[in-house]
Amino acid sequence: MTVPTTHWTEVDSPVGPLLLTADPGTGALTSLSVPGQKGGRTVQEGWRHDPALFRAAEEQLAAYFAGELKEFQLELSTGGSEFRERVWAALDTVPYGATTTYGEIAARIGASRAAVRAVGGAIGANPLLIVRPCHRVIGADGSMTGYAGGLERKMRLLTLEGRLPGSSLF
């Protein structure tokens, strides 16, 4: 069985270059990574550079960073376990400018309080930074906890969304 070629492009952004990958058959976005991201993707031999496939994603990301877009309307395909997909779907419900906690995400998916660590692991494995807003998840005490893209990026994204005080960093 032949594995389909991954299509990719890179988009400039205020938080650094964004590497986007997509399923060539459906055009669905499969990942969005930033440099130095824990578990992030890097371009592999055999991947096909195809900027045209990502036009809608590029336009929506530009509008998001300009403060003009609050909700992405992109087809996503992540292929995680059933548990991870439930966690990621819960992330999609956290609105622009809001934050939630790991415990609240666990409660939304009907997971026990003991499952908070597993929820954190699923959030940390989110392959679609920014588009799937894992940056909106904070510690129960309001602290800026882990973010695969780095805490500085997390704080910049929350500042952009008006969640953190201070001047715009963009």
From TrEMBL:
Enzyme class: transferase
Annotated SUPFAM superfamilies: Methylated DNA-protein cysteine methyltransferase domain (SSF53155), Methylated DNA-protein cysteine methyltransferase, C-terminal domain (SSF46767)
Domain Methylguanine DNA methyltransferase ribonuclease-like: start-end pairs: 8-77
Domain annotation Methylated-DNA-[protein]-cysteine S-methyltransferase DNA binding: ranges: 82-162
Keywords annotated in UniProt: Cytoplasm, DNA damage, DNA repair, Methyltransferase, Transferase
Domain of life: Bacteria
Localization, UniProt: Cytoplasm
Gene3D superfamilies: Methylated DNA-protein cysteine methyltransferase domain, Winged helix-like DNA-binding domain superfamily/Winged helix DNA-binding domain
MF GO annotations: methylated-DNA-[protein]-cysteine S-methyltransferase activity
Gene Ontology biological-process entries: DNA alkylation repair; methylation
Family annotation (InterPro entries): MethylDNA_cys_MeTrfase_DNA-bd (IPR014048), MethylDNA_cys_MeTrfase_DNAb (IPR036217), MethylG_MeTrfase_N (IPR008332), MGMT (IPR023546), MGMT_N_sf (IPR036631), WH-like_DNA-bd_sf (IPR036388)
Catalytic residues of the enzyme: 134 (nucleophile)
Cellular component terms (Gene Ontology): cytoplasm
Catalytic activity: a 6-O-methyl-2'-deoxyguanosine in DNA + L-cysteinyl-[protein] = S-methyl-L-cysteinyl-[protein] + a 2'-deoxyguanosine in DNA; a 4-O-methyl-thymidine in DNA + L-cysteinyl-[protein] = a thymidine in DNA + S-methyl-L-cysteinyl-[protein]
Segments passing through the bilayer: none
Pfam assignment, any one: DNA_binding_1
HAMAP family, per the entry: OGT (MF_00772)
Note: This enzyme catalyzes only one turnover and therefore is not strictly catalytic. According to one definition, an enzyme is a biocatalyst that acts repeatedly and over many reaction cycles.
Function noted in UniProt: Involved in the cellular defense against the biological effects of O6-methylguanine (O6-MeG) and O4-methylthymine (O4-MeT) in DNA. Repairs the methylated nucleobase in DNA by stoichiometrically transferring the methyl group to a cysteine residue in the enzyme. This is a suicide reaction: the enzyme is irreversibly inactivated.
Sequence similarity: Belongs to the MGMT family.
Protein name (record): Methylated-DNA--protein-cysteine methyltransferase
